[in-house]
Amino acid sequence: MHIHILGICGTFMGGIAQLAQAAGHRVTGCDSGVYPPMSTQLEASGIELVEGYGIEQLALKPDFFLVGNAISRGNPLLEEILDRGLRYVSGPQWLSDNVLQGRWVLAVAGTHGKTTTSAMLAWILEDAGLSPGFLIGGVPMNFGVSARLSGNVGESPFFVIEADEYDTAFCDKRSKFIHYRPRTAILNNLEYDHADIFADLASIETQFHHLVRTLPRNGLLVSNGGESSLERVLARGCWTPIERFNQAFDWRMEGDDADGSLRLMHGEEVIGKANWSLNGEHNRSNAVSALLAARHVGVPFDISLEALSRFKNVRRRLELRGTVRGVNVLDDFAHHPTAIATTVSGLRRRIGSGAEAPRILAVLEPRSNTMKLGVMKAQLPASLADADLVFCYSAKLGWDASEALAPLGHKAQVSDDLDGLIRNIVAAARHGDQILVMSNGGFGGIHDKLLAALAD
């Protein structure tokens, strides 16, 4: 069967493409500004990509179209599909019907940490010999791909999925995760995001409540007990056993960034220990939720902790893209003020503080729909407090980034010209600096351009 995917270069739809190809389908797809890393991954898989949404793509005559949630009414190809009455389906619906049906789905939901926690959980199951399938909104370095049907010839019953609360498609405004029907679910955290589709936090809590309603009685809900928003969700009704973490009397992970130590705690009892390469309280929180979910499918804590010692994280999570003249260029997916603060402070802890410590040059593209709307612009200065200099790319913003970042004073520079921004960064950079690029998109290839400009 031939499937043509609209919006194929997004991490979710790109993962769908790889799963469909692995299932034996012919897969093609299109996107605007076909961009890596997904475009590179798809092309390496032999999936044909088309630039743009021209109606001439109908000549491919696929059996049906998969429509990503980035595609809106007014898109020329979508409009022609609708006018001609051609067959189409959303990505989550296709995934539910063709991949997840009959499998033990482990879903990871939350405003932050979904990708990292999903990657941890998939790796723990892999290391334990369970060979899970997975679909993750990033590329776990332990696997090298963002999606696969299963790790062995015989299909594993387990499938790990990053469960996004964003809407499904132009024709289905329910959250994606409503389609997944998990048996094991992690609720990591919950705060306001996606201002383009949710009016307030209560609206998102309703979608999380809908997810909770789909879990079976013999399932497990792993929930962050330190999040009042999640407690409100569960108070609306839950029919599934709950294991909470991040409470002093319950499950939690302690550790030390200096030596990479981990201690799994239950109350005051040390359940197990390990060492790993990640740091930060947020990653320890991700880890304990992954361990609890893995235990639900039969992986003992000692096996899970040992697996974490070999976990390599996900691409675009403080990923070093290159070093030129003693200047490191790092890439991170952070695009929400909470994630930005976590990323910058995490880097600060890693490199140290004080007069002799390396400087952090934070480079920010407010690209997500929430950021473009300016809903959280007031939170940006505080989230960037640990940076020494801040460079903000302001193209296509509906608000004044200079005004929003004014509390940072001389530390902040704003430009709507990418080449000019790069020149300013390179002019300011000096030996030992950490240039931290934060965006949920390709950012115009800024990482390679910075490295080239530094070399010149």
Automatic annotation (TrEMBL):
EC number annotated for this UniProt entry: 6.3.2.45
Required cofactor(s): Mg(2+)
Keyword presence, Nucleus: no
Amino-acid positions noted as binding ATP in the UniProt annotation, renumbered to this chain: 110-116
Pfam families associated with the record: Mur_ligase, Mur_ligase_C, Mur_ligase_M
Domain Mur ligase central per the UniProt entry, residue ranges: 108-294
Gene Ontology molecular function, alphabetical: ATP binding; UDP-N-acetylmuramate-L-alanyl-gamma-D-glutamyl-meso-2,6-diaminoheptanedioate ligase activity
Residue intervals of the Mur ligase C-terminal domain: 316-441
One GO BP: cell division
Pathway membership: Cell wall biogenesis; peptidoglycan recycling
Gene3D superfamilies, sorted: Mur ligase, C-terminal domain, Mur-like, catalytic domain, NAD(P)-binding Rossmann-like Domain
Catalytic reactions of this protein: UDP-N-acetyl-alpha-D-muramate + L-alanyl-gamma-D-glutamyl-meso-2,6-diaminopimelate + ATP = UDP-N-acetyl-alpha-D-muramoyl-L-alanyl-gamma-D-glutamyl-meso-2,6-diaminopimelate + ADP + phosphate + H(+)
Record keywords: ATP-binding, Cell cycle, Cell division, Cell shape, Cell wall biogenesis/degradation, Ligase, Magnesium, Nucleotide-binding, Peptidoglycan synthesis
Domain Mur ligase N-terminal catalytic: 2-98
Record family assignment: Belongs to the MurCDEF family. Mpl subfamily.
Function recorded in the entry: Reutilizes the intact tripeptide L-alanyl-gamma-D-glutamyl-meso-diaminopimelate by linking it to UDP-N-acetylmuramate.
NCBIfam families listed in its UniProt record: mpl (TIGR01081)
Protein name: UDP-N-acetylmuramate--L-alanyl-gamma-D-glutamyl-meso-2,6-diaminoheptandioate ligase
Species lineage: Bacteria, Pseudomonadati, Pseudomonadota, Betaproteobacteria, Rhodocyclales
